[in-house]
Amino acid sequence: MFRFGWFLLMAGVVLAIHPQWVGAQAPAKPVTKPGANLLPEGDIRELKLRDWEPRSMMATKTTILDKPLFPVVDVHNHLGGGKDRLTPSTVNRYLTEMNEAGVKTVANMDGGWGDRLKETLAALDQAHPGRFLTFTLINFEGLDDADWGEREAKRLEESFQAGAKGLKFHKSFGLSYRYKDGTRLAVDDPKLNPIWAMCAKHNRPVVIHVADPAAFFTPLDKYNERWHELNKNPGWLFFGEKWPKREDVLDALHRVIEKNPKTIFINTHFGNNAEDLASVGEKLDKYPNMFVDIDARISELGRQPFTARRFFLKYQDRIMFGTDTTPRRDAFRIYYRFLETEDEYFDCSASHHRQGFWNIYGLNLPPEVLEKVYRGNAERVLFGLKTEEEKKALAPKEMLIRSTGDFEVKGDGSNPAWSRTGWTTLSRRSPKGHDYETKVKTLYSDKGLYVLMEATDAKLTSTYKDDFDTLWKEDVFEFFLWTDERDPIYFEYEISPLNRELPILVPNLDGKFLGWRPWLDGPSRKTRKATSAIGGELKSGAEVKGWRAEVFVTYELLSPLRNIPPKSGTTWRGNFYRMDYDDGKTSAWDWAKTGPSFHDYKRYGTMKFE
Fold this sequence. Notes:
The chain has 14 helices and 22 strands. The protein starts with a helix and ends with a strand. The chain has two domains: about 70-390, Metal-dependent hydrolases (TIM Barrel); about 395-610, Immunoglobulin-like (Sandwich), CATH 2.60.40. It is an alpha/beta fold. It has helices at about 1-15, 90-100, 115-125, 150-160, 195-200, 225-230, 245-260, 270, 275-285, 300, 305-315, 330-340, 365-380, 390-395, and strands at about 70-75, 105-110, 130-135, 165-170, 205-210, 265, 290-295, 320, 400-405, 425, 425-430, 440-445, 450-455, 475-480, 490-495, 500-510, 510-515, 530-535, 545-555, 570-580, 585-590, 605-610.
């Protein structure tokens, strides 16, 4: 019996290996079960990897965003250069796509130099002010000449004087340019030092692309995650003895950034290292003159949405919007979907082209972060986007707080101690509001902080009779004290013309603002405050010429925060803010320019104690 079973088993193995041995009655192809799909003509098992185009079966939410939450500045685009390329019809096509997608300005990296640059500036920047910013390029011809660096720096200065808004380096820099003896031009070659210095002299940023995605520097084998893309574009593979190591190119770039602290560097493609956000974060922490843009890298960022979102929140002041894609509304809208929604597992190839064989997830960033990424950071950094006056308003604010002995708070600023310091004027946040003035003074003692505000006004729009009410809905003066940058928590104080107050502590956790009342028990934990009217009565609805508020905040009230009490040399971050509601108009003023929200605490100014 055992031998017979063994014989049947072996026969089955033989037939499985060679089914044709069973004779003419055996089927030549696998039997298809009733109702099953038949194999297509040509065995699907022979499908080439390059032809595999899977379609997701995921049923997920699709959000269509025609326009972004804020107008966009695209800091990295390629529109071409010269009058032959930039014909009126071509430029109008660009503008149509930009308008349809809510794009205010596009930076063009293709300016070139000489006559080509002048033609490009005429067709774009000069013909359509505010819509385009043209960057110039470096001419690497004659690299072996001893005076090449100085010569190109002079040419660069001429380009800036002609109207170029910055300098662009393509990825061939560090990969392809060589001396006559075959030596590769390194990114940190000393010959380039005059060029970096010239950019700093003229306050023009350097948009710089070095290296490429990590997969482009690995073998094109079964382990390469960008196999499809590289198989189609073999010239993008930089693996082998012919090419430098990717990390060596990046290290050279970072040495340049470190040695040129007065030059602004915008590292393309998310710091040229979107696969390693921890490394990019380390460089941003180390180099305050370094920024990154997101162009052509949402495919990398969107497959790590949790890490990417935390990165955007932490480095919201250092990230800029860019596409690296000739203006096309559908491409822009993919970026908006990635930044603004929480859509899951969607195809982003329309944003640039197919990069990798995966889909991405939206980050659902808060409005205050979106405003910075879309336009705010670009307005601070790019040349020609803002007037000098506007840039001055956006520049970091600093205030020296002088010391004093303690004194009585009367609400009119009459104490002689106030003569020890000058006024700081707040800026109007929008030209649409009333043209009133607002100014503040600050002093500090061993026991607390003094703040004095004086404002012009026509009417006291103030009705609240209780403390801790929603004072911000009527005329109000506010100040914010962020005493230690290690903690995302700060103190907010509001006071109305009728002397009603709202002191709260505000934690900011991942863009969420949750305020609570500080403990006010005991006289040492309470504020001292008073208000007064200028040119009228201190009552609701009174016609006046202005009003004042004088506040003393004890350090005891700030005790949940660190870095309390301040000493000589201590620095806090802070801001001052006023709102007015005359004639149904909302007018607002601030000291440190913030985004849409006055809780944009990372933009607060610096308060240094004498």
